[in-house]
């Protein structure tokens, strides 16, 4: 056996993956449990999924979560991409260190500190807590993740492509949308998916910045779990896992297809 895959390494990988994914597998299995007791298997059933769709509280919370995730991820992607462009293209300008620190600070800032800071800000500007404040908070802490992903792609970007386009008369804005953006689009999509997933998963920051009518699904689930886990919660979590999984698979497929198309274009250019 190859020393790289020794018995110790195999056991370590199996234990690590089991630690990460076994609880998720158990949750999914028990979402199909016919018994009301979540720890006792009573047979296979999908009745809790039907009951879930009649639970108006969970449905409303899920709708709020999806809307917040879509809006915040889209805004964070635009701002994060612009921030990555500024840091990559303009390496020397006054305040660059401060600008970089402000973008990447949420990466290392505890969620409690971020949530409390945003709460104090919204109170100071007399902005009522609700859907808007939750969305702004999610934009704030997800933008940095988009910036990191896009910046890593821009670092290896061949700027001679942009220079060639501008030499042929294309203005900077047209050059960005027709040359730069198509090349970095996989990173932009990956950043959007990461921001959307982080928004769906957030509990702490949303708890600080939410208000009446803006209860997200993680907040709703947490409040009900404190009174006891119900099969409906297992079903809701399973659907959330499925949504995130489909998003990750879709992003991977899109990136894979774009990579294949890019290689074909390069091979065609070489033949020409």
UniProtKB/TrEMBL annotation:
Task: Extract the InterPro entries matched here.
Answer: Bact_Polyamine_Transport, MetI-like, MetI-like_sf
Q: What is its main location?
A: membrane
Q: Which SUPFAM superfamilies match?
A: MetI-like
GO CC terms for this protein? plasma membrane
User: What does the record say about its membrane topology?
Assistant: Multi-pass membrane protein
Ordered alphabetically, the record's keywords are: Cell membrane, Membrane, Transmembrane, Transmembrane helix, Transport
Record domain ABC transmembrane type-1: where: 62-252
- Biological process annotations from GO: transmembrane transport
Pfam families with a match to the protein in the record: BPD_transp_1
> Transport: is it a keyword of this entry?
yes
What parts of the sequence cross the membrane? 12-32, 61-87, 99-125, 131-155, 176-198, 233-254
* UniProt subcellular location: Cell membrane
Q: Which family is annotated?
A: Belongs to the binding-protein-dependent transport system permease family. CysTW subfamily.
Which PANTHER family does the annotation name? PUTRESCINE TRANSPORT SYSTEM PERMEASE PROTEIN POTI
Protein's name according to its UniProt entry = Putrescine ABC transporter permease PotI
């Amino acid at each position: 056996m190859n020393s790289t895959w020794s018995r110790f390494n195999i056991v370590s990988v199996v234990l690590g993956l089991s630690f990460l994914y076994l609880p998720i597998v158990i949750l999914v299995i028990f979402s199909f449990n016919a018994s009301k007791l979540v720890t006792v298997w009573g047979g296979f059933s999908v009745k809790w999924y039907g009951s879930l769709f009649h639970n108006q509280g969970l449905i409303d919370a899920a709708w709020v979560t999806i809307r917040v995730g879509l809006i915040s991820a889209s805004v964070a992607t635009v701002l994060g991409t612009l921030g990555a462009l500024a840091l990559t293209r303009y390496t020397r300008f006054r305040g660059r260190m401060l600008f970089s620190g402000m973008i990447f600070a949420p990466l290392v800032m505890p969620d409690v500190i971020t949530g409390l800071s945003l709460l104090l800000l919204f109170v100071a500007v007399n902005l009522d807590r609700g859907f808007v404040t939750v969305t702004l908070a999610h934009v704030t802490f997800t933008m940095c993740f988009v910036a990191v992903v896009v910046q890593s792609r821009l670092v290896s970007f061949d700027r001679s492509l942009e220079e060639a386009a501008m030499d042929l008369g294309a203005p900077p804005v047209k050059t960005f949308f027709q040359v730069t953006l198509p090349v970095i689009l996989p990173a932009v999509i990956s950043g959007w998916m990461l921001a959307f997933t982080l928004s769906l998963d957030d509990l702490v920051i949303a708890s600080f910045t939410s208000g009446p009518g803006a209860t997200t699904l993680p907040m709703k689930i947490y409040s009900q779990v404190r009174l006891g886990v119900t099969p409906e919660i297992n079903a809701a979590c399973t659907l959330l896992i499925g949504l995130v999984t489909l998003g990750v698979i879709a992003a991977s497929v899109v990136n894979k297809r774009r990579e294949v198309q890019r290689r074909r274009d390069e091979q065609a250019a070489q033949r020409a």
